[in-house]
Amino acid sequence: MVFTIHYGFTEDAGNLKESRCGLLTRAETLEQSPLRGCGVRHAPLRSQKPFPRTLNPVFSNEDYLAELLTEAGLVSADDVTRARNSLFGAETIIEHLLGHTLLTQEDVARTLAVNAGIPFVRLAEQTYEPGITETVTEETAKRYRVIPIQDEGYALTIAIADPLDFETLDSLPHIIGRQLNLLCATRQDILDHFRQFYHSGEPLDGMDTSGITITTGDIEADKGGDDAPIIRLVLQMLSEAFRVRASDIHIEPMETSVRIRYRLDGKLVHVDTHPKKLLPAIVARIKVMSGTMSIAEKRLPQDGRIQLKMADKEVDLRVSSVPSNHGESVVMRILDKTGLLLGLPELGFFSDDQATFEQLITLPDGILLVTGPTGSGKTTTLYACLNVINKPDRKIITVEDPIEYEFSGINQVMVKADIGMTFAAALRAMLRQAPNIIMIGEIRDPETANIAINASLTGHLVFSTLHTNDAPSAVARLADIGVKPFLIASAVRAVVAQRLVRKLCPLCKAPAELTDKEMRALSMDASRVVDASIFGPVGCDKCRNNGFKGRMGIFEVFLVDDEVRQMINTGLSTNQLRRRARELGMRTLREDGIRKVLAGITSGGEVVHATMSDAE
Ligand SMILES: [Zn+2]
Prior knowledge:
Layout: E1 3-6, E2 10-11, H1 16-28, E3 53-54, H2 62-71, H3 77-85, H4 93-99, H5 105-116, H6 138-144, E4 146-151, E5 155-160, H7 166-176, E6 179-184, H8 187-198, E7 211-214, H9 228-243, E8 248-253, E9 257-264, E10 267-275, H10 279-290, E11 302-310, E12 313-324, E13 327-336, H11 344-347, H12 351-360, E14 366-371, H13 378-389, E15 396-400, E16 411-414, H14 423-431, E17 437-440, H15 446-457, E18 461-466, H16 473-481, H17 485-491, E19 492-504, E20 510-511, H18 516-521, E21 535-536, E22 548-559, H19 562-569, H20 574-583, H21 589-598, H22 604-610
Parallel strand pairs: 5-6, 14-18, 14-19, 15-16, 15-17, 17-18
Antiparallel strand pairs: 1-7, 2-3, 4-5, 7-11, 8-9, 8-13, 9-10, 11-12, 12-13, 19-22, 20-21
This protein binds zinc ion.
Zinc ion (ZN) binds next to loops.
């Protein structure tokens, strides 16, 4: 059973809580009130713009657009009236019609195009000049919802979603500094291409379609009725978490309330508080969505999975419920299976490390290992590597637990230990499929380690991860697992250790100095900061007042050359390996972090924190 629900809510000056509380208040009076006249659902008029950053596809003049659509015979006047009378929360007429499949996005865009006297286009069918994105900054494209297509010299051809928005039409030529040839495309199309073009993880402001389809669980059972406000509340929680790229959602019962926190860039952020009486309904709703968790069982921990589509992206949620002293606590981890558009620079490699890395990942055979503690971004790095080398002439196979991102063109196998599909079993089976490149989620047992080593010595390039703090320790770790030193020496090509640090928000960061404590912790002397452009966090509404936005890796690349190979063979200690590697030019995690501080990308405190436990 697939149930699609479209909804939206208003984010006024970054304040999401207000509109949610509004929703709940209204929800509580659902019977008495037809939920109208709440004041937030109306499409903002151009001149007023009362809600500058809505999450809905709100067009500049929805009433006029509805009229045009009716005139064009795409929707009946009755449907429009019905839509107008059954709006909920911040939902708009057009959104309602789209949500009830009475209209398609293309209907809307074509109508707008005809009315504005400009051609309608599908962005996938256009040819784009290389470097065309440089003509319009990411900021402008995002703000005005446009995609540049062709540079005609005298003018720039761009696609726009709302040609009725005269404010945009007036401002854009000045901001871009060119004459514009306009084309009209659907909002979804522009959103999708924005992500591809600007490699941004963020949806365009006001462009999240918020269409969520849940594909697990018994949705029919509680469709509508008294549960509708809770359904919306939970979906809004998910949608907002997804929009801000949270990695997990924490629903935590307190003594008299329910606290909602998101993990953003590795840190928990308090986003909302609900009345305690809503807890049972919220937890029950989430369990229903999973389809496998028991609503009746509240005294034992449970695990489940929710699969859904958000804004046309497949998203997997890992759900865990645990009874606590104040009630059931739920954590949902978001696994966005299609959201990966990472290249090596996005991971945080500086060009020198990137060049080394690009050479490594095109080797014909051998093992490349990425090491670090849990949450250090190892898997993301492996995925970025696969993304670079995923070409039609190579067969790439992965064994993972779980599959966090889905690639087209790569055969991914998920480990299911309970039915005997262990890393080792999956790996043996996959080798019969004659792959060129193998990715193993993690090496943690002798069997997997030895299969991986053998594969790499028989013409396969193998990528995997290990739990060690620094790169040279990987050698000792493999030996501990039970791999013979001479095999390690001949199979391992390189080990990359990594940590994640938060990136300073580029919009609000300000020049800063390192404290004496930071200088000491980073073992830096004053001479190094003389010509540096060091910045510190400030906070603005674009970064939720964190001062940081997004994360990047800091890396330690340990190359196994002939000399190191000889050292591994003779069984030298990790310390000896490390010392020699540094003599040969290996940059440590901390040193890589320092260069990113000196370049103003992250703060001194971040690097101190990330490398606290590392030996110098
Ligand atoms: Zn900021």
